[in-house]
TrEMBL record:
<keyword id="KW-1133">Transmembrane helix</keyword>
<dbReference type="Pfam" id="PF09335">
    <property type="entry name" value="VTT_dom"/>
</dbReference>
<protein>
    <recommendedName>
        <fullName>VTT domain-containing protein</fullName>
    </recommendedName>
</protein>
<feature type="domain" description="VTT">
    <location>
        <begin position="10"/>
        <end position="140"/>
    </location>
</feature>
<dbReference type="InterPro" id="IPR051311">
    <property type="entry name" value="DedA_domain"/>
</dbReference>
<keyword id="KW-0812">Transmembrane</keyword>
<keyword id="KW-1003">Cell membrane</keyword>
<keyword id="KW-0472">Membrane</keyword>
<feature type="transmembrane region" description="Helical">
    <location>
        <begin position="28"/>
        <end position="51"/>
    </location>
</feature>
<feature type="transmembrane region" description="Helical">
    <location>
        <begin position="154"/>
        <end position="173"/>
    </location>
</feature>
<dbReference type="GO" id="GO:0005886">
    <property type="term" value="C:plasma membrane"/>
</dbReference>
<comment type="similarity">
    <text>Belongs to the DedA family.</text>
</comment>
<dbReference type="InterPro" id="IPR032816">
    <property type="entry name" value="VTT_dom"/>
</dbReference>
<feature type="transmembrane region" description="Helical">
    <location>
        <begin position="120"/>
        <end position="142"/>
    </location>
</feature>
Length: 178
């Protein structure tokens, strides 16, 4: 789970249900799997948090002014994201930790916005615990059929990715049109 957070293509949707299956076989303990998954995830989120925190707003703002057009980013986009994060910061982190594709990267704006480390850890831990427990329980319940997890979660993950892609395309199109 540490690597899943540092290198996002590694899917927790496969790792944790497999651990749940192993619990069902009596080879691992439920509490041990959950604790290991949560600790690994939080440790993997910390480098991203510190990247945002150490990079700082000035450096990011300068980079956006210099190279932001490559990603169709503007300083106004940065300001809007800061306002949104400042308004919903703690909840953004908690909910972001259970959304595929966002789970890892939510740590960067948390650091950038100087979210207190303690709050970041608490909200990240709650969101991560919910996600890891959910996946582990699914693997446990499915037992020998844990390979069905991919079939069960694939439509959900695909839907989230499609929504994100559509949103990005609309955003990109409107930015280019302007």
């Amino acid at each position: 789970m540490l690597l899943e957070n540092i290198i996002p293509p590694i899917p927790s949707e496969v790792i944790m249900p497999l651990a749940g299956f192993t619990i069902a076989e009596g080879k691992l303990s439920f509490i041990g799997v959950i604790l290991s998954g949560v600790v690994g995830s939080i440790l993997g989120a910390l480098p991203w948090y510190y990247l945002g925190k150490n990079w700082g707003e000035k450096k990011l703002r300068k980079w956006i002014e210099w190279r932001g057009q490559w990603l169709t980013l503007s300083v106004e986009d940065l300001e809007r994201s800061q306002e949104w994060f400042n308004r919903y910061g703690n909840w953004v982190v908690l909910l972001g930790r259970v959304i595929p594709g966002i789970r890892t990267y939510i740590s960067i704006p948390a650091g950038l916005e100087n979210m207190q480390l303690f709050s970041f850890l608490v909200y990240s831990t709650v969101g991560t615990t919910l996600w890891i427990s959910f996946l582990t329980i699914i693997g446990y319940w499915l037992g020998d059929n844990y390979t069905l997890v991919k079939q069960f979660l694939s439509p959900i993950s695909t839907l989230v990715i499609v929504i994100l892609l559509i949103t990005f395309c609309i955003w990109f199109y409107t930015r280019k049109k302007r």
